[in-house]
TrEMBL record:
Pfam families, alphabetized: TraB_PrgY_gumN (PF01963)
InterPro entries: TraB/PrgY/GumN_fam, YbaP-like
Domain of life: Bacteria
Organism: Pseudidiomarina donghaiensis
Keyword terms: Signal
Protein name stated in the entry: TraB/GumN family protein
Residues of the signal peptide: 1-24
Record field: transmembrane: none
């Protein structure tokens, strides 16, 4: 199903192919003896229920001991976020009417009003991934509100006056989707909206897997995601190669904390493997994010 591709891209880009460790930890200490560098790396997830998540003290302690926080996008940079606003809109702006027939468009209108409580016309010019993210937030059965691990880490760093550095811009991230066929994105959005139960089950499964820390289960989830493998080069591998060139330079003279989507960590082209190839030692730090409820 096309929507599974879009779901996985949105959420990790949240998970990756797991070949590094059967334990599938998401928190690590990274050291390089010759360069005298120490950093912490946390794999994050961009959409969880706040009531089901507890950030471990171990993570906050590591962040407190760090002089800078390195993230995918610096959400504290207002100028950068403002520059990304234009990239939130899809060209052409009437793309939904172009790629959906009248019956499909009417169905999307109905579901948008019913599930999100707003007319499709208010969202239609936005990129498919942004519209999809609104539906995903609605699909997650949270007792309170949805929650982003990345944003929580950034907020904590800002409260402690820790320097925040972005590896790439929000505008660049959005424009990355221009390399994916627009008709495929629209089809994925339509399936996501019209097949709510299937999408919701997949979303909850991925969230619970992240929270549980069950490496074997996480590995099985990823092995089933054949539809994502072809896109991993664009959304994960190429970005990892760019980041691994930047990180050693950023680590110089400063204790660092890196927080990126967990999918960037694993696999032959994952950050962990790429850092090891540069002589870094990776030490897993076991963490628990709280009890996982059965949905």
């Amino acid at each position: 199903m096309r929507f599974l591709f879009l779901l996985r891209v949105l959420l990790c880009i949240c998970f990756g192919l797991l070949s590094f460790s059967t334990a599938a930890n998401v928190f690590f200490k990274v050291t390089h003896e010759q360069r005298d560098q120490t950093a912490y790396v946390l794999g994050t997830m961009h959409l969880l229920c706040k009531d089901s998540f507890v950030m471990p003290d171990t993570v906050y302690q590591a962040l407190a001991n760090s002089e800078q926080l390195i993230v995918e996008v610096n959400l504290t940079d207002d100028a950068e976020l403002e520059a990304a606003q234009s990239a939130m809109f899809q060209q052409p702006r009437n793309y939904l009417q172009r790629y959906l027939n009248s019956e499909q468009y009417s169905q999307l209108e109905h579901q948008t009003q019913r599930q999100l409580g707003r007319p499709l016309s208010s969202l239609a010019p936005l990129r498919p991934l942004i519209i999809s993210s609104l539906f995903l937030a609605d699909y997650l059965p949270c007792e309170s509100e949805t929650f982003s691990v990345d944003e929580a880490i950034i907020e904590h760093a800002v409260s402690k006056d820790t320097l925040v550095i972005g590896l790439e811009s929000a505008k660049w991230q959005l424009e990355l989707f221009d390399q994916v066929d627009l008709s495929e994105q629209v089809s994925a959005l339509y399936e996501l909206v019209t097949e709510k139960e299937v999408a919701q089950h997949e979303l909850i499964s991925m969230a619970d897997t992240y929270l549980s820390g069950n490496g074997k289960k996480l590995h099985e989830v990823m092995l089933a995601q054949d539809d994502f493998i072809g896109a991993s080069a664009l959304f994960l591998d190429q970005r990892n190669q760019t980041w691994v060139q930047k990180l050693p330079q950023l680590f110089v003279g400063k204790r660092s904390f890196v927080a990126v989507g967990a999918g960037h960590l694993y696999g032959d082209q994952g950050l962990l493997s790429l850092l090891i190839a540069q002589g870094y030692e990776i030490t897993p730090i076991p963490v628990s994010f709280g009890a996982v409820e059965s949905h």
